[in-house]
Amino acid sequence: MSRRRPRFPTGSVARYTVLVLMFVLLAGPLLWQLSLSLKGPGDDLYAQPPRLVPDDPTFGNYTGVLDRVPVLRFVMNSGLVALLVVGGNVLFATAAGFALARLRFRFRGLVTALFVAALLVPVEAVIIAQFLLVRSAGLTDSLLGVALPTFVAPLNVLLMRNAFAGIPDELEEAAVLDGAGVWQRFLRVCVPQVKGVMAVVAIFAFVGSWNDFLWPLIVLSDEQNYTLTVGLNMLKGTFYDDPRLIAAGTIVALVPIIVFFAALQRFFMRGLEQGGIKG
Amino acid sequence: MSGTVTASRRGMRREGRTRPARHPHWTRGSWYVPWLFLGVALAVVSTFVLFPFFNTLLLSFTDATLLRGGQFVGVDNFRELWGDARFRTALLNSTLYVVCVVPVMVVLPLVLAALVAGKGRLLGFFRTSYYLPVIMSPVIVGLVWTNLLDRRGLVNSVLGWVSAVGEPVPFLTDRWLLLFSAMFVTIWMGMGYYMVIYLAALANIDPTLYDSADVDGAGTVRKFLHVTMPGVRNTMGLIGLFSSIAAFRVFGEVYVLTDGTGGTGGDNLTMTMLIQREGTGLQARTGYAGAISLVMFAIMAVLLVLQLVAQNRQRRNG
Fold first, then answer.
1. Residue B62: strand pairing partners
2. Whole-number Å distance between alpha carbons of B54 and B294
3. Which of B47, B51, B86, B95 is nearest to B285 (CA)?
4. Parent domain of A153
5. In this complex, do B41 and A207 lie within 8 Å of one another by their Cβ atoms?
6. Residue B97's pLDDT is what?
7. What is the reported pLDDT for B107?
8. Is the CB of residue B272 less than 8 Å from the CB of residue B251?
9. Do B95 and B175 share a domain, yes or no?
10. pLDDT level of residue B38 (50, 70, 90 thresholds)
11. Is B94 domain-assigned?
12. Do A86 and A196 fall within a single domain?
């Protein structure tokens, strides 16, 4: 952030008015969803004017959803997939990024070009072929099948490569003089320098995996294996007549991601400023 | 050993100023060490991105189905696409998505960024809350807005209450209203992302420019038009590119708002929905779906090239 920012000497009131209106537009729908999820049978959902505070507040909608749809199971499935994807990207994108940035070997340029080419292929263009592949490996309807295609994302490899390339030579030179091998240079010298970028990779891998919808929708068929997004999509069909239950389901799904965001928001902003791109 | 030395010399010349070139002694480990570091990443990316891409190329020239390998049929799939009404609808919807969503995504987040830039807890709070929808799943956002836009949902309640409309507005059933509602939802959840990118660009504008504008007596709007916008022109190009590719790929919002049906008679199908629909399930025609995928890839590549050319020209003229 620059020390001197664009100033709006006369427009301060106008500025905050716009900001507050925007906030209402963004937070309002979520607040309404929360209110809806707490409304009991005694509430008129369609009262005019609409009422934000429930007359007959209840947690019954939450127990109702949890009883009839295995939401916690979905959360666990999503968590497992996210764990695999985050682990894969943090470990293997880091290792690959290190090799591309700090080791010399034949075909290095070619391999880098492969990762760049892979970055340019949109997932929609290959998703059917990916499905055929996972199917022939017998991994349809499994969480492993959901996690595999994004286990190491080309974008993360290239992000890590750039991070490693930014480390000053002197650090590594000193380590080499001390007789450090490749492994020590990687773990002791270079990795500590790029921890911030690794955190960014981890966070975006988590969010991407947690929110992914198209791929798990294609791969999974048994309800027991549904991830949260695919499972939530079912809510609409299951509780067609009762928006209160749908609302309760979405709030259950929202809480973990909001907590996660609140805890790590500093990294989110930094990640974007470093040029992280949404998957 | 001598082979390795030649290779590294050749590499040195080719890669010119890349850093490790000055330190040939760093390569003293065995030749396979780099491949140990690269192995898993290379295997995953080749297997799940590069190979499927070539497989899609091949598939699109066959009449393969999910259960059958299929024969080479030349360009039959593409000829069929040309006459397929659903394909035209999907192409139209995805294109409209780009045309309508992108201008908003380029301008609105910039205005927001200019408004929330600066120090102070309150501004920080606004920044964070504007970003929050970005990390929410399109499915959740779709469900939230389904409740809001329903015939009897909040939006219609409010409109009815202030007597703006006599009949409930069919946001989720009318062919065009549904498409525009979905676009609104896309913008609602995507704004914060581009806002943060703009924030980084705004921080790089020379603050003395604003001071000289002050001296010239420029107001807020003129400063925005004549200092802020030119200062972030490259970022605007970049965001135009990102958001047009993102808009063309739209899936989750439309899928959830239409209950996965793509609207009445499939009128609201998008390209991605069409691929998902043709390429999965027991009746899947993977060859045909491959052809749609390929067309989609080609269009996205064209978007990319067009945007880059436009940006280059702008830079040369500016």
1. B72
2. 10
3. B86
4. 66-273
5. no
6. 93
7. 93
8. yes
9. yes
10. very high
11. yes
12. yes
Closest CA to B153 of A46, A236, A37, A26: A46
Of A99, A121, A246, the CB nearest to B147: A246
In angstroms, the CA B99 to CA B251 distance is 16
Lowest mean pLDDT among A161-170, A244-253, B19-28, B145-154: B19-28
Give the closest-approach CA distance of B106 to chain A in angstroms: 16
Assess whether B45 and B81 both reside in one domain.
Answer: no
- Chain B contacts in chain A segment 63-92 (CB below 8 A): 88, 91-92
Q: Considering CB atoms only, which of A25, A36, A129 is closest to B147?
A: A36
Q: Inspect the interface and report whether the beta carbons of B131 and A265 lie closer than 8 Å.
A: yes
Asked whether residue A170 is assigned to any structural domain, the reply reads: yes
A70 and A147 in a single domain? The answer is yes
Contact residues on chain A for B140, CB-CB shorter than 8 A: 229, 232, 250, 253-254
Per-residue pLDDT band for A154 (boundaries 50, 70, 90) equals very high
| Residue A135 in domain | yes
Considering CB atoms only, which of B115, B118, B131 is closest to A18? B115
A152 and A43 belong to one structural domain: no
Same domain (yes/no): B251, B305: yes
B55 and B84 part of one domain: no
Answer yes or no: do B289 and A128 touch at CB < 8 A.
yes
Domain boundary residue, one of B34, B59, B84? B59
**In which domain, by residue range, is B38 found?**
2-59
Using a CB-CB distance cutoff of 8 angstroms, which residues of chain A are in contact with residue B34? 99, 103-105, 108
Mean pLDDT of chain A: 85
- Cα distance between residue B218 and residue B207, in whole Å: 14
Residue A176: give its domain's CATH number: 1.10.3720.10
Q: Which residues pair with B72 in a beta bridge?
A: B62
Structure tokens at B246: 């993102």
pLDDT level of residue B283 (50, 70, 90 thresholds)? confident
Choice among A160-164, B164-168, B186-190 with the minimum mean pLDDT? B164-168
CA distance B115 to chain A (A): 6
**Which of the pair, A238 or B295, is modelled with greater confidence?**
B295
Neighbouring residues of B306: CB distance < 8 A, sequence distance ≥ 6: none
Give pLDDT tens digits for B173-193: 888 999 999 999 999 999 998
Please give the average per-residue pLDDT across B279-295, as a whole number: 88
Residue pair A222/A141 in contact (Cβ under 8 Å)? The answer is: yes
Calpha distance B93→B87 (Å, rounded): 10
The answer to whether the CB of B87 falls within 8 A of the CB of B77 is no
Residues B256/B142, Cβ–Cβ less than 8 Å: yes
Q: What per-residue confidence (pLDDT) applies to B1? A: 34
Domains in chain B, number: 2
**Which of A92, A129, A218 lies closest to B52 in CB terms?**
A129
pLDDT tens across B77-133, in order?
899 988 899 999 999 999 999 999 999 999 999 999 988 888 778 888 888 888 888
